[in-house]
Amino acid sequence: MEVVIYRTYEEISMASAAVVADVINSKPNMVLGLATGSTPLGLYTELIRMHKEEGLDFSHVSTFNLDEYVGLSPDHPQSYHYFMHENLFKHINIEPQNVHVPSGTTSNYHAFCQWYENRIEECGGIDLQVLGIGSDGHIAFNEPGSSLGSRTRIKTLSKETIDDNARFFDKREDVPIYAITMGVGTVLEARKLILLANGANKAKAITDAIENPVSSMCTASALQLHPDSTLFLDTDAASQLKMREYYEWIQAKKPGAPASS
Ligand code: PGA
Questions:
Q1: pTM of the entire structure?
Q2: What is the chain's mean pLDDT, rounded?
Q3: Which atom from ligand 1 is nearest to the alpha carbon of 201?
């Protein structure tokens, strides 16, 4: 588990985009796991810039999103289908048939969840999964208490998540209470994980994820079990870490780090 602390949100966005671009450039038909929410917006803006200005090529990339609200159709402005289309897909050369976002309106959720899991496998598994973190420590919509072995399924959102996400809706009552989400077990099977977090409201969840025991009460702590996970944090999100100086020391002394560090 690698912890990298940056001064600003912009630096997190640039650094995480560089990781995504590296994987795409080394494996043009890579499978990319994507997240929604405010946090990855800067990363997506930078990927769009790289596509337009540097020719970053998505034509053979497949994507799988982590989650979707139950009951919102793809054209609903708060659906994650809509979010992804507006903030990434319509700006890059991805093939529509290579894009996967869980369905919020299927008539058979159980069958859909199984299909989604099978589809990830058919595509060769996720090479790189982008993650955010909820203030309650969730990854995707795996709320506290979710099994660390869970697979794609319907989850009931926690009150904290509904409060956090109410800002995107006209009123709190409009926030769906169910979501379809990849499980923690699904996420852990990705070959590489990157988790992005900024802002003081993520500081406790980040500390639980990195420095407290692995627990279903903070599903992001499952990253401790993954062989290749990196957390990109700003100083606010990192502000409660006890070992912060050590993480900064590791980065400064990394082979290849600038001599002046
Ligand atoms: P946010 O959401 O990026 O909007 O803070 C993160 C999450 O809930 O995973």
A1: 0.97
A2: 97
A3: 5
